[in-house]
Amino acid sequence: MTATPDLAHPDVMRRAWRNVAVLLLAQALLGAQMSMIFIVGGLAGQMLSPNPCIATLPLSMMVLGSALSARPLSGFMRRHGRRAGFLLACGAAALGAAIAAYALATGYFWLFTASALLTGVYMAAQGFFRFAATDCAPPEFQSKAISWVLAGGLAAAFTGPALVRMTADLTAIPFLATYGAIIGLNLLGPVLFAFLDIPTTPRAVGRHAEGRSVAELIRVPQIAVAMICGMVSYALMNLVMTSAPLAVVGCGFATTDAANIVSGHVLAMFAPSFFTGNLIARFGATRIVMVGLAILAGAGAVALSGVELPHFYLAMILLGLGWNFGYIGATAMLTRAHRPEERERVQGLNDAVVFFGVFLASLSSGGLMNCMGGSAQAGWSAVNLAMLPFLVLAGGALLWLMLRPRDLAR
Questions:
Q1: Is the dihedral of CA 139, 143, 144, 146 positive or negative?
Q2: Residue 13 CB neighbour total at 10 angstroms
Q3: Comparing 82-86, 176-180, 276-280, 298-302, which segment has the lowest mean pLDDT?
Q4: Closest Cα to residue 278, out of 142, 399, 149, 136?
Q5: For residue 201, what pLDDT is reported?
Q6: What sign for the dihedral angle of Cα 356, 360, 362, 363?
Q7: Which residues, in sequence order, are CB contacts of 167 under 8 Å at separation 6+?
Q8: pLDDT attached to residue 296
Q9: Contact 345, 74 (CB under 8 A)
């Protein structure tokens, strides 16, 4: 005899909250390395690069590493569990940071660039934190669990820059101690993930043991639309965020102004996570994603309306808020669109698509900003105009899904 849901629910919720707490801490502590790398990666690349045009290539390679490793890492976690997958990623990130430190010490740009691919393995694993939070959570708690875990990024957004300020000039070679600190952060992984309580997914038996194939899954409307909206939300945020500091300084403002604008953007990315899950539970994931896409469009409109500091601040705050609603909402849509035995396959495919889109955005951002029109204003306009076709794609796909009969939506 199985327990009734109301008797089992307290134990289920205790496990769910425990996992959320562990993953939130992991996002806050281990996740600090991502902001650290985004701050120093381009600067270190500029210091080592034989050509300033490719100074940010290591950052693009990190995102490419995420896209390439997402599906294999998801399959590894299906076989060996979430804890094993997260520990593997921490090991890869620590090794990548060690190689990066050696490349800095020896002045070897291409080795430094290659090391970023290993860091990308951790970036992919951090993307799975939000999915792992739903593994043992009841359906009504899943969107809130995703939201709480991503809220840990708010702490990482402040911890990472603080660590960079403490370590950047500690050694004769700039940033060498920063990469040493990144190694130290990854050594916290075994301590944190020892408390994670997510059992390995049992192998199903029978005709549908492995679930649907990738070709079948991408034909499921809710899965396809969730992937499109998640990719567009993340890629457009990356496209504009990467160019924003260049635009701010290029329009005659100080570097400190650029830093303050980016800080406001990061705050807008993560602070709403404390209530985004509640909004999804009340209004539904598709409506929240649609609102997120509309806010992203508003960010582009504000950016195109002027290049004074208030325009930059408002545009970047809207960009962060739009990313939060679009990305968390798309994740919530995805978690409800597949069978349990298809979980890792769908999640790996989704994040491979998302990070490949982010990789293309990171490569395009510098070219649009620096090579379109000959001025910072023209480049900034080109970056924001580039958002339009992708917003139309995602908005059209979402509207099509919302208008489908309910019994055909999945």
A1: positive
A2: 14
A3: 276-280
A4: 142
A5: 64
A6: positive
A7: 175, 177, 178, 180, 181
A8: 97
A9: yes
